[in-house]
Amino acid sequence: MPEPEVGSQIDERLEELYQRHRGLLDDRVARYYQPGQGYLGAESLGDEAGTFGIAMAGLDGEVHGAGAWEVPFALQSISKVFAYLLALEDHGRDHVMTRVGVEPSGERFSSIVFDEDARRPYNPMVNAGALVTADLVLGADVEERAERIVALMRRHAGNDDLAVDPDTYRRETEDADRNRGTAYLLRSEGMLEGDPEEALDVYLRGCSVAVTCRDMAVMAATLANGGVNPVTGVRACERRHVRDVLTVMYTCGMYDFAGEWAFEVGVPAKSGVSGGILAPIPAKLGLGTFSPGLDVHGNSVRGVDVCREISGRLGLHVFAAEAEDAVLGGAGPHPMPA
Asked: Which of 24, 149, 155, 206 is the right S-S partner for 79, CB 3.0 to 4.6 Å?
């Protein structure tokens, strides 16, 4: 546990970071996503434009945040991380690799494209791959399979109250034509073995789980800690699968911005179209951000900016030199502005 003054410094630095990034969103905001309505123009954001939260969880179990870090929102595509993790635990990496690959697709996350040579979706972080991993999750019925994914999320977040939000789930099922078509095409090509409707239902329930930035920061810290939740001390998943999940997040987790993200920010991450970003930094900490204004790739504009700055200030890029300061760059050659 950090000394009180260190914890206060972290709170102050996060608040300063929040204040600098909370201003009016710039012209990089192309749209935002409203369940049941799809993508809406940036001009439709209204009061949501000011919703913005940041949370950081250390491997010592300390959690800090600023802004709207306790405001719930739908997990959306970030749920793909946990469906993939559970598929690995249910079947092992060799079998899962026969069903879904680990290559960046180079296409939008909702594109209906497959690896024609390997006869599988490119990776589990695009919708086609997520439908296959949902199909792989074991359970007697849709409810049990979806509940197992949610239970895995709860262990990672240290929050037994995580649940599918019924309103989000209803809206998602009403707006699922493209994913439904993808699921049936997967089955027609022999890439999805179960009932397409069941795979779609499991996937949409995972997307509809409500979380906060705090939840995501602890989820990320759990992955960063080799699968042990640093707040509860509970092992949330098998350590042997964490490396595979983090690797796929690093190369495929930020939609068709993944290459630039790896180049500039250099940490594993997964974004969702509701505006969240989950970023585990192995052996160091976990980050969670939320802001609904999205760029052309479907990533949160503020979230990307904040993660880029934190990575730079703390030297978190996987190929960077070791950071010189552990409190948000408060010392060293690149301190955050006062």
From this structure: 206
